[in-house]
Amino acid sequence: MSHPAGYLVRQELMDRERLARTLARMAHEIVERHPDMAGAALVGVRTRGVPLALRLAGLVKAACGVAPPVGALDITLYRDDLTMIAPHPVMKGTDIGFSIDHRTVVLVDDVLFTGRTVRAALDELVDFGRPARIELAVLVDRGHRELPIRADYVGKSLTTSRDDVVQVMLREEDGQDRVVLLEKERARSAAGKGRKKPVGRRRGTGSRKKGKGK
Predict the structure, then answer these.
(1) Measuring CA to CA, which of 43, 53, 59, 214 is 20 to 30 A from 112?
(2) What predicted TM-score, i.e. pTM, was given to this entire model?
(3) What local confidence, expressed as pLDDT, does residue 187 receive?
């Protein structure tokens, strides 16, 4: 997976091992809060929220012996910026093959930023039923919320500028597990630009006094 044009890696936030440890911790936090996972389900927000939800479900099963059902949510048509993202947005479809009524539903996404993606996911989710409770699990919380939304399970919180990009790469989608923080590439000034040229003596401009003839 290539970086967006005009961006450079400023910091590696997670490599494969650290990402695996982070998901394991998040799975144990879910089990601690919900010892009876029979009444819970995980729903991943496409795209990378889905493989994260599947991994968490496997880790939850390893921790408590119960594998929660996993669904996938495509929020494309619920976005409040739909007209700005693309003239013909690509839709991968929503797939929730179980009832969410009276369940605890854990929404899973890769990055929590302004909160607008989560708002769209909530809007779509309640169209499928009436869950007993909805919680949010995110791999990275980068701040800059525009809506009153908070994650219940967070892999990593960090401070970013609004121009930064948190890029999550997963083997299921990108062939590798890695999370990096990108920053805009600063334009480099041309060599010597703005420097003053050294001032030298100009030849032939000085007047010479001619000696008087004898």
Answers:
(1) 59
(2) 0.82
(3) 38
CATH fold for the domain made of 7-82+95-184? Rossmann fold (3.40.50)
Structure tokens at 136: 């949010």
**Can you give the length of the chain in residues?**
214
Phi/psi at 18 (5° precision): -70, -35
Single-letter residue type at 132: A
Q: Report the alpha-carbon distance of residue 50 to residue 135 in Å, rounded.
A: 15
DSSP result, the chain? -PPPTTEEEEEEEE-HHHHHHHHHHHHHHHHHH-S-GGGEEEEEETTTHHHHHHHHHHHHHHHHS----EEEE--GGG-TTHHHH-SS------B--S--TTSEEEEEEEEESSSHHHHHHHHHHTTS---SEEEEEEEEE----SSS---SEEEEE----TT-EEEEE-HHHHSS-EEEEEEEPPPPPPTTTTPPPPP-PPTT-S--PPPPP-
pLDDT single digits (tens) 140-191? 999 999 999 999 999 999 999 999 999 999 999 999 999 999 999 873 333 3
